[in-house]
């Protein structure tokens, strides 16, 4: 397969190769994938880099819609391109000082699964904002406030459980995604919101925007039909043309290669720093979720508490880490809190997350996904997860963050993967005391 790209707008002059590489999806609907190098999903990153990307999106949006001048934007953009810990942290400290005040208080929505943390990072930067992220979780006996389709995805149904008056205001909605190729997913949720919680303005923030002129025309039609404005902001925009045949299966073997070696496993519970949502468990019979993820909605009043909780949790893990080179691994939609905690765990810490997305690995130069493993999600073994780009000798220790209770048995496939990658120490960081002990 071949993908032709043409860059039309690069407002911050960020080299495209610093933002993404390409890979082949195992998906009949769309054969290719832009694999972000700043998102912390399929490629490991410094844990503050996704927050810098979020900040750049928030600042670009503010400048385009309000005319405000963001003094630190150039320094933050420069920090996104750095690799050393001090430079990245310095850029993030500058970002935290740049508060963004929009003309109306917005509702920020991050798209699951890939952009839950990216959206949360945008929310962090904007005063008087509310935040919620969509989810692929189908909760029994709880009716979702929004339901829409992500048409190109392997798992098309998306939902939003507000759990509170998130949409009570008529302020603008800011949708955040890692990339938009056709924009259909964004238009689907806008139409559902407008039907149930009408308002006047929407904005779409994405790292990459590859919509064609025909797709942009669909946006203009939607604006006229719904009587709203829909603005877009991206770090890189252009056009894409695909030639070739899509993959409906991969010849790659996602299983560990050798016999499992001994892995030192321990568990630490971080639930004391965060807020469980027992009402969800009571209604569904399922495990509690963590409020601070934003899955059920959070506001500016929660922001300071989330920062303190992540700092306390990160400091605690920093004191017990054994490895010099550490990977912090989020699970699925559970991205922001593990990433933020990882940022407080000292130097030589990388962050990425597991994913539902099946991607074809190939150990070739300039190909984004060198290797991959599949395993049952420890929190829901009916759902297959993948983890990509684990080097053979890259890490001394891995911290795996799980939101819901897990058992030793459910973790075994993931531990076998760690063993295959010569990772000797694994720490399971839980957020619910219902998990089995590994001490």
From TrEMBL:
Q: Mention any Pfam family matching this sequence.
A: PRTase_2
Every copy of the TRSP domain together lies at: 292-416
Give the Orotate phosphoribosyltransferase-like domain ranges: 19-238
> What protein does this entry describe?
Phosphoribosyltransferase
Lineage per the UniProt record: Bacteria, Bacillati, Bacillota, Bacilli, Bacillales
């Amino acid at each position: 397969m071949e993908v032709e790209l043409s860059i039309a707008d690069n407002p911050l002059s960020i080299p495209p190769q610093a933002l993404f590489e390409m890979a082949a999806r195992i998906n009949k609907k769309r054969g290719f994938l832009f694999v972000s190098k700043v998102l912390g999903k399929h490629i490991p990153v410094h844990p503050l880099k996704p927050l810098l990307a979020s900040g750049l999106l928030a600042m670009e949006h503010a400048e385009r819609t309000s005319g405000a001048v963001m003094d630190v934007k150039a320094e933050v953009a420069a920090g996104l391109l750095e690799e050393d810990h001090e430079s990245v942290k310095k850029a993030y400290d500058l970002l935290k000082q740049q508060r963004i005040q929009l003309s109306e208080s917005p509702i920020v929505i991050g798209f699951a699964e890939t952009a839950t943390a990216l959206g949360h990072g945008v929310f962090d930067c904007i005063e008087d904002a509310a935040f919620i992220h969509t989810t692929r979780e189908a909760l029994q006996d709880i009716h979702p406030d929004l339901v829409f389709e992500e048409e190109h995805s392997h798992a098309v149904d998306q939902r939003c459980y507000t759990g509170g008056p998130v949409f009570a205001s008529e302020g603008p909605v800011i949708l955040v995604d890692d990339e938009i190729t056709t924009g259909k997913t964004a238009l689907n949720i806008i139409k559902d919101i407008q039907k149930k919680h009408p308002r006047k303005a929407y904005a779409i923030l994405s790292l990459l925007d590859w919509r064609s002129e025909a797709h942009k025309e669909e946006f203009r039609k939607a604006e006229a039909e719904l009587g709203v404005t829909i603005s877009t902001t991206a770090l890189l925009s252009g056009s894409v043309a695909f030639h070739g045949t899509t993959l409906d299966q991969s010849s790659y073997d996602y299983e560990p290669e050798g016999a499992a070696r001994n892995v030192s496993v321990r568990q630490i519970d971080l639930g004391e720093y965060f807020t469980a949502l027992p009402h969800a468990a009571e209604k569904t019979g399922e495990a509690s979720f963590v409020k601070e993820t934003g899955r059920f909605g959070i506001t500016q009043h929660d922001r300071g508490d989330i920062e303190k909780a992540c700092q306390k949790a990160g400091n605690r893990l920093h004191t017990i880490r054994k490895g010099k080179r550490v990977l912090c691994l989020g699970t699925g939609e559970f991205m922001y809190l593990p990433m933020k905690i990882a940022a407080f765990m000292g130097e030589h810490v990388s962050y990425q997350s597991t994913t539902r997305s099946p991607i074809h690995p190939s150990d070739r130069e300039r190909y984004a996904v060198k290797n991959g493993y599949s395993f049952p999600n420890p929190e829901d073994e009916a759902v297959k997860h993948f983890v990509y780009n684990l080097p053979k000798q890259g890490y001394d220790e891995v911290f795996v963050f799980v939101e819901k209770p897990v058992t030793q048995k459910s973790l075994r496939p993931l531990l076998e993967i760690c063993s295959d990658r010569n990772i000797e120490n694994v720490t399971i960081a839980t957020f619910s005391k219902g998990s089995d002990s590994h001490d």
